[in-house]
Amino acid sequence: MEITVVVLGLLVVLAVVAVWYSLRWVRMRKNGGVSVALRWRPDSARAGWHLGIGRYEGDAFAWYRVWSLRSGPDRVFERHALEIADRRDPIGTESYAVPAGSTVLRCESDTQEAIEIAMGPGALTGFLSWLESAPPGRRLPRAS
After folding, report:
1. I need a surface site. Which of 25, 119, 122, 131 has the fewest CB within 10 A?
2. How many CA atoms, within 13 angstroms, populate the side-chain half-sphere of residue 18?
3. What pLDDT, on a 0 to 100 scale, did the predictor assign at position 117?
4. What is the pTM of this model?
């Protein structure tokens, strides 16, 4: 009898967590979030892709990891500090770890570590528009 109660309790907890993640995902997507995979320290052999939702919050791009219990963003990138250093298609097995049809942007910053952001065509267009709409006087290098 006790084992049944424990198993039932664990199933209820798992169901609550699954519903919470689903609601969190839907809420973020509904409020302007876009599917984005992020990789920090891309030059490291251990660097892996992390799926998440990116949201534009004024002059910041906030990234929320999909499988995180945090209510706030896991990473925040300021528009004035991001510069696109390179653009490429996913290589090899990367195409399985990033959103479908993604382009990978390598972004560098004077204030933060280098990152790679992978996003689909629609999200990429929005990201580039947001990045290029920086205040006058800010020069953005063009990646080939």
Report:
1. 122
2. 6
3. 94
4. 0.73
